[in-house]
Amino acid sequence: MEITVRKFDLLKELQLLQGVVERKTTIPILGNVLAEAGDDGRLRLAATDLELALETSCPAKVQRSGSCAIPARKLLDYVKLLPDADITIKQLENHWIQIRCGRANTRMVGMSRENFPALPAFPATPAAQLPAAQMEQMIRRIIFAISNEESRYTLNGALMVLKPESLSLVATDGHRLAHILNDKVQLQGVSTELKCLVPKKALNELQSLLAEVPEAGNIEFNRDETHLFFRVPTGMGNTRLLTARQLTGQFPNYEAVLPKDNQRRVSVRSEEVGSAIRRVAQFADERSHAIRMRLESDKMVLTSSSSDTGESDEELDTQYAFDPMVIGFNSQYLLDFLNAANTDEILLEFKDEQSAGQLRPKNGDDYQYRYVVMPMRI
Amino acid sequence: MSGRKIVHVDMDAFYASVEQRDKPELRGRPVVVAWRGNRSVVCAASYEARRFGVHSAMPALRAERLCPAAIFVPPDFSRYRAVSQQVREIFRRYTDLIEPLSLDEAYLDVTVNKPALETATQVARLIRQQIREELRLTASAGVAPNKFLAKIASDWRKPDGLFVIRPEQVDGFLAPLPVERLPGVGKVTADRLNVLGIKSVADLRTFTLEELEQRFGRYGQRLYELARGIDEHPVTPNRPTRSISAEDTFPNDLTLAELEPVIRTLAQKVWAAARREQRPARTVVLKLKTPEFKILTRSYTPPAPPASVEEVIAIALELRARVLALPRQRYRLAGVGLSNFIDPNTYFPPRLF
What we know:
The structure holds two protein chains of two kinds.
Chain A: E1 2-6, H1 7-18, E2 32-37, E3 42-48, E4 52-59, E5 61-64, E6 66-71, H2 72-81, E7 86-91, E8 96-101, E9 104-109, E10 128-131, H3 132-142, E11 157-163, E12 166-172, E13 176-182, E14 194-199, H4 200-210, E15 218-223, E16 227-233, E17 239-245, E18 264-269, H5 270-281, E19 290-296, E20 299-306, E21 310-317, E22 325-330, H6 331-341, E23 345-350, E24 357-361, E25 367-373
Antiparallel strand pairs in A: 1-5, 1-7, 2-3, 2-6, 3-4, 4-17, 7-8, 8-9, 10-15, 11-12, 11-14, 12-13, 13-25, 15-16, 16-17, 18-23, 19-20, 19-22, 20-21, 23-24, 24-25
Chain B: E1 6-11, H1 14-22, E2 31-33, E3 44-45, H2 47-50, H3 60-66, E4 71-73, H4 77-92, E5 98-102, E6 105-109, H5 120-135, E7 139-144, H6 147-156, E8 162-164, H7 170-174, H8 187-195, H9 201-205, H10 209-216, H11 218-227, E9 243-255, H12 260-274, E10 281-289, E11 295-300, H13 309-321, E12 330-341, H14 344-347
Parallel strand pairs in B: 2-4, 7-8
Antiparallel strand pairs in B: 1-6, 1-7, 2-3, 5-6, 9-12, 10-11, 10-12
């Protein structure tokens, strides 16, 4: 293989691929990108960690077709440092790779491409069309609530529910839950309800890919028995393919925990309450991040105390006309929502000190978005 | 760090003594604190029971065989913790530099003490007296210029004894001691030392620092210092437990398959030790060492902290299954640990589902 690519084109793809490459893999080939050049004037690149795979490409002058496996991290770090010019990549004997750019000349140790795992192919069945911009927004608002706890395997992804006229995502770590529904869409290629669990890493990568989709573009979604496929258009008229192994197992019955009679309501300006929480949380217990929220006639008081650092309180004026109450929260859980919601004003709805609270943006948009969070015992 | 005055206080047969204090019918009788059960181990044994050879960490069934007359009492850790707090209150009259090792023993740095007593011996004497008068329990104490000597000293006149090692007595005291008395010298190190003709601390002193480092790596330096009564480790108060573990080096290397009974025993030991903690541990760790001294660890954090020794055993065995190795691969050491001690009620909100 011998090809010439523009640095900018190659770097862009390598950065996307790096999100898939496993950092601490025990299988050496998985630390590599697979590079393949055909006669179509494109350099195809792929990376996988066996759970997730990304296949992408960039325009290239192909002098000689062929393929090789190149250590991903090293290649990315090196290409980053190269001047903004054409890069020539040439396969030498014994899996050596030569990289030239301007006066820089490097020989890298590659690996045999034979060991690179075969990647699943996009199914031939009709694909669903999902609106890219909305998907991106929705993922951003729920992804933070996905559990990192490996033991709760089914919570390591978000539940995606597709219906002909709605699209929803649910994520939870067992202590809090983010739910977003868009029922102002028409999903082509979706005839019945379709549910699947999308792993967190796949959603992260998908977000990066979605950011490049031209306005009002759609992505193609498909699945087979084991994998989920997202074909994402780029601004350059071609596509990238993200393949994720489906998480199997039962997602918890989240509908049962969505609060139905949280009568005590209060609305606050996001920025104001966010700043106050951040300040007060400085003096919360370092591990629990617990703060108290006291609601009384027309005010909200946030307090914290820690035996190590001190105590703090802050009062916010707000309209509140229900019975007073004091409820404890992990301040980080509240901030996570405020960051993700990115809205002027939020509505907090409570039942009592022990029941889950619900937070949502006060002024709706196309989405029905809510965040359910368990209070802490205080 | 020179000129320190360290006291090590060790409650005598603590859990068993608390039981005997609170239940007069148990006094003077062999008492074994342990759960009933095939796989349970002894948490504590009264001195009456120890006479029959019963000791803590021994399988309860074996204790029963050794001493059929023993009265078995299920442990009540919340009561032991409360008493331990009272003991600590007494310590606090003298110093805030208290490093508890468990519910029943602690190091105190009394170089500077609150009542400004002249000697650490006076402090130790008063502490023992107050524990006896106020709590009706006995404690043994050791006084020395550092932690490791203080600990050896507290064991010297146990039970209900006080032993003092003055700085000028350190050399003479240590010389005849068998090397096994030094902290960190277990059976395996002792065997390796014996091969070199080292039986006593005096023998150990004939070796240079270089010779010991060559044979024992970093631990060589520690051995060299211990043999000379040097131990600069400070008394560290309020050190929260980060992990508890039990490990065992085998006389002959074992395969993964042969490890099962070892893992069970270690899990029981570590579970018994973890019961003394206020907070539950969330993570179970399995550690293995190959004959080449390569260390492998596998850990697992279940959604809820393991609630029984059976759960710890099941997880540890599960972790063993996660070790990918050739069937012939052998191991020289196995360890089971618990870590990540947190109070789930304080640190996490309750679950939604």
